[in-house]
């Protein structure tokens, strides 16, 4: 699907993504939308979303966070939210083992207090932030995102955090900063599988600067209204909803701004299977399996009819423009 851009350069979001606040903030735009019937649809969607948000369970297991609803276009999917018990027991976190059940069983040894995140490289203001300082950089928004793993399963998770762009702006990247690299904790004492030969540690990921600045890219501190459980990447992780799950690095300790495209853990392990971009794309198969369909964890049994995977995981209206002109088969 193409994003329409009018003469003022305004990108029209999907009708379903317009919040009443965004509508009211620009009365001229409101009048235009009223004429096309879009505003009414947006208001109806808002009411539905409010109803949906009420359904998000607050498991009451970990420290609660004060959350606000997000006004970012695309920040809330209308799909059924995955149950907490599934999202917190079916995980990939190879530092704690390669079975889906390993992280939930083993990650209790992860020490998340105290925690610091070092921001360095091509920035005017490098800094070492405590988790507490980092959390104060923005209001904690609830974002209900689809997460699509490259292995062919997906979940719908109410994450809590704020746009990574808030942090990026704070450190003032230099003109030659083209990429952002994310490095995560690699502590042999508390992470039993660091040192195993599956991956090169620490787990590393990266984004292009425009991807890092995209409002949907979430610096994530919680889920289901509470702080992250260890197995989901406590105390701070990334969630990049239009990319395969492995881009969403867990337990981040360093963020580095670079001119060169950073090396990523999965690309180093198998360059022909995992590219730098890793955008969800049903038309570009993994060399060993199709990416056309997926299974929703907690809902679809092993023999259920598979769901169709959406281009950019359904976030094409928001992110498609960033890849205009890029050969997605080559840049997978
Ligand atoms: N540090 C680290 N981050 C990681 C991983 C990992 O092994 N180590 N696995 C990735 C993969 S493959 C996926 S699908 C998501 C899973 O996130 P979830 O367990 O919260 O659903 O985390 C990603 N982040
Ligand atoms: Mo994954």
> Topology as H/E string?
HHHEHHEEHEEHEEHEEEEHEEH
- The chain-level mean pLDDT equals 90
Q: Which range does the strand content fall in?
A: 15-25%
Question: What is the β-strand count?
Answer: 13
Rg (CA only):
20 Å
**What distance separates the N and C termini?**
19 Å
Give the fraction of residues assigned to helices: 10-25%
Q: What class do helices, strands and sheet pairing give?
A: alpha+beta
Could you give a short account of the major beta sheet?
8 strands, mixed
Count up the helices: 10
- Oligomer state equals single chain
Assign the CATH class.
Alpha Beta
Uncertain parts: 1-27
Which architecture name does CATH use? Alpha-Beta Complex
Structural notes for this entry:
The chain is α+β, with helices and mostly antiparallel strands and 332 residues long. It has a single domain, classed as Sulfite Oxidase, Chain A, domain 2 (Alpha-Beta Complex). It is 21% helix and 20% strand. It contains ten helices and 13 strands. Strands 1, 4, 5, 8, 9, 10, 12 and 13 form an eight-stranded mixed sheet that branches. A five-stranded mixed sheet has the order 3-2-11-6-7. The N terminus is likely disordered.
């Amino acid at each position: 699907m193409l994003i329409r851009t009018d003469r003022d350069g305004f990108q029209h979001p999907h009708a379903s993504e317009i919040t009443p606040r965004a509508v009211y903030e620009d009365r001229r735009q409101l009048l235009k939308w009223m004429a096309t019937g879009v505003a009414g649809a947006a208001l109806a969607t808002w009411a539905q979303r409010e109803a949906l948000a009420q359904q998000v369970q607050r498991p009451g297991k970990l420290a609660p966070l004060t959350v606000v609803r997000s006004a970012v276009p695309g920040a809330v999917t209308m799909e059924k939210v995955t149950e907490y018990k599934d999202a917190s027991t079916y995980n990939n976190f190879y530092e704690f083992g390669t079975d889906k059940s390993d992280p939930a069983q083993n990650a209790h040894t992860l020490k998340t207090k105290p925690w610091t995140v070092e921001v360095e490289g091509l920035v005017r203001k490098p800094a070492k932030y405590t988790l507490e300082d980092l959390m104060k950089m923005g209001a904690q928004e609830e974002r209900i995102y689809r997460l699509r793993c490259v292995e062919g399963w997906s979940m719908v998770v109410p994450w809590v955090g704020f746009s990574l762009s808030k942090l990026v702006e704070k450190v003032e990247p230099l003109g030659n900063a083209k990429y952002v690299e994310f490095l995560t904790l690699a502590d042999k004492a508390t992470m039993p599988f660091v040192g195993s030969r599956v991956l090169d540690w620490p787990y590393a990921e990266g984004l292009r600067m425009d991807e890092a600045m995209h409002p949907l890219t979430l610096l994530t501190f919680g889920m289901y209204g509470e702080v992250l459980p260890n197995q989901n990447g406590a105390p701070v992780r990334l969630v990049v909803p239009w990319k395969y799950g492995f881009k969403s690095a867990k337990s981040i300790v360093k963020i580095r701004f670079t001119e060169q495209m950073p090396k990523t853990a999965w690309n180093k392990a198998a360059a022909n299977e995992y590219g730098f971009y890793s955008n969800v794309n049903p038309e570009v198969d993994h060399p060993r399996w199709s990416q056309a369909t997926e299974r929703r964890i907690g809902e679809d049994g092993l023999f259920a009819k598979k769901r169709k995977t959406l281009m950019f995981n359904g976030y094409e209206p928001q992110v498609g423009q960033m890849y205009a002109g890029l050969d997605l088969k080559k840049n997978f």
